[in-house]
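Supplementary material to the annual report.
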Amino acid sequence: MAPSLWPGKKRWQGLGRLTPWLLLLTGLLLVRFSKGAGFVDAYALLTRPFWPGSAQREWVEAAVDLEQRARLTLLEQDNQRLRGLLELQQSGQTGRDVAAAVISRRPRDWWQQLELSRGALDGIAKDDAVLGPGGLLGRVASVTPATARVKLLTAPGHSIGVWLPRSRDHGLLVGTGATRPELRFIVRDPDVRPGDLVSTSPASTLLPPNLPVAVVQSVDDQAVPFATAVVQLIAAPEAIDWVQVRTR
Amino acid sequence: MNRLHRQPICVASALMVPMATLATPPWLGLDGVPPCWVVLWLLPWALVDGPISGALAGAALGLVLDGLTLDGLTLVPALIGLGWWWGRIGRRASPVQRSFNLGLLALLGTGILGLTLLLQLLIGGGGGGGEVLEPSLWAWGLHTLACQTLVTGVLAPMLVSLQLLIWRRRVPA
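Predicted assembly:
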């Protein structure tokens, strides 16, 4: 065949050869910037027959009852303290709880995260609180239509404001990668001792108020600039198959 | 020239990496830390298909895995570098095929990958805003790095040898 006299034809042929690669690159970028939406949704669809059964769900619901009783006690104390403050926002539960199965977990990897079987279609949104049996587990970091990704409280750099209901001292719970996060106080001499309950602040707007989070294990009074404590989370991410997502 | 990337079944095997990453059971890891599946797939691929294909596969898998993890850390630069390096090694006259050598390469690759993640944590201050990593974060980072490197190095002689055998049969040099 004689060579073409049209230089544009060669250019179009070159572009034609590049098209599949450009489409592949576009696809990969879509996966990257949609936070793996297609992959995680496909994974959720494929693993649906293997999701945890209903027996564990009932066990979780029983544990949630226990958690709610503890929460009720905290709320009663809170109500007494707030009786005279008319301006404070009501701390009641406004959202609803969505039960979701844990379909993938990486509590000890570089990224400490869970993948849940419910997503935006069930009303879950970024920053919703995720509760395990007994207490707070983490917050929703991103959602796809059918799944949600949870950043665990133990993840490095993850920090939330908490307080000690007994002494009413405030602190910052910071994930250090280990299974036991660190509680950093923002007062010089906090009244804290091993065994103290740690919960979300009653005036919290980012998280639901008065959620049990952890129990103080040990206290370091010599830390600078302020005292720190090591806490044990009440809800252990390694052993949980069902969680509740509190939507807003 | 080897054309592993022209065989759809070989390219499709890359889908096993994100699936294995999501579905790894806790008992398969060391102290809960799972193996680095991407290294176990990329090493034989780059050895068979060369540096350019290795670097491109590393970039593609890095993008997918970045999409499947929390924001803040990226695997892309390290995987591109590893794909290129292993591809260069695969182009040498005597092909790498001994189990010990494959295990050592996987061990080094996982170590380098983990160090880049630790470096990103150091630069980003563990997501806390630029401060130097604290001792507890260092301890956790080194523990995770050691566990992942060891478990990947142990699995590599079995899995990488098998993949090399299959892929070298499909595309003889």
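Chain B has a mean pLDDT of 87.
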